[in-house]
Amino acid sequence: MLELSFIRENNESIIEHLKVRNKDFKDLILKVLDFDEKRRSAQFKLDNELSELNQLSKEIGEMFKSGQQQAAIKLKEQTTLLKDSTKELKQHLFDLENSIKEILYQIPNVPNQQVPNGNSEQDNVVVDSYGDLPTLSADAIPHWEIAKKYDLIDFELGVKITGSGFPVYIGKGAQLQRALINFFLNQAIENNYKEVIPPLVVNEESGYATGQLPDKEGQMYHMQEDNLYLIPTAEVPITNIFRDTILRGEDFPIKRVGYTPCFRREAGSYGKDVRGLNRLHQFDKVEIVQLALPENSYDVLDEMVEHVKSLLDKLKLPYRVVRLCGGDLGFTAALTYDFEVYSAAQQKWLEVSSVSNFETFQSNRLKLRYKDNNKKNKLVHTLNGSALALPRIMAALLENNQFDGGVAIPEALIPYTGFDSIDFKD
After folding, report:
1. What pTM, to 2 d.p., does this model score?
2. 10 Å Cβ neighbour count for 266?
3. How far apart are CA 261 and CA 286, in angstroms?
């Protein structure tokens, strides 16, 4: 959520920068400024009336002490009117503050100047590309056929138990999934991330604090009776660990990593792009989160990008790094890099990670601050990234490493799997 003071001081610049998102937010900016002006006017009036009420109360007390009872009683009538007025003003102020908050929830983060113009993912900019695209034999098959052939993943069984988008991993498919999770966790821990195992269910306040609510409400699984949400990503509970916190400069860097299943309704998804592991309602992901001082946050973003690169290098998967354009940028992000791996059998790029800097957008909602050198409270910058999301990594590994009679396991994973290939006899 943008800071109201920031909007007040930079409204013209904000309106202009938000145009990169291909939507005009001018009316909302002007509306929130109008409500803010009314709020400040109401606050000024309330402060004056409370001050007057306090002064009258002192005068009444002195009158009673000096025997001026009639004058004191008459003055008390005036205080009664003032009390009614201040009560109305407090309610008016409360309503204005709620209106301001509701408008602020509709305004996205201001894109960083590095964010390119564009309408959709077709306008994203490839900034790096690594690895040679594999050449497969003519009889190469996509991962959903590999999974069925070698009894690794049962999509139909998942439909029977729950519905589409909830696969069942079996045998070496389950072992490979678990190996990837442990590999990603250990790599993060070696890079000084502290592991946490957070809840898979969060309350409404946590959803609002990191920006999933109200923006992604329709994409989250909601348990109405308890008003709780299944997490769409570990970012939500891990970042909320620090909600309502004041940190010190010496606390940084703050690095956390967590593995969780993730749950997304993916409403409106259909067609060939959702086949197999390409798009699921439940999937596993290892998430890295950092809290940074504002002056360091873009160095931290670069560091997180390098971390994800190192994982894909070790898995020997061809990948590219993409800077998202304004039209494809997430609601809460100031700058995002997506990582895409190449699926040789499907002959297309699959997104496996997003690494983002949210600057103060989340921390303003979280009330997450630190004390600077002058002992003033300032908002922290928050960052997070998938390191990595498993479904499409699994898809690319199966497809790119298939050979006549099986699938080879990357060398970096063999200590975790305990086997170097998957073949028919398995």
Report:
1. 0.93
2. 14
3. 9
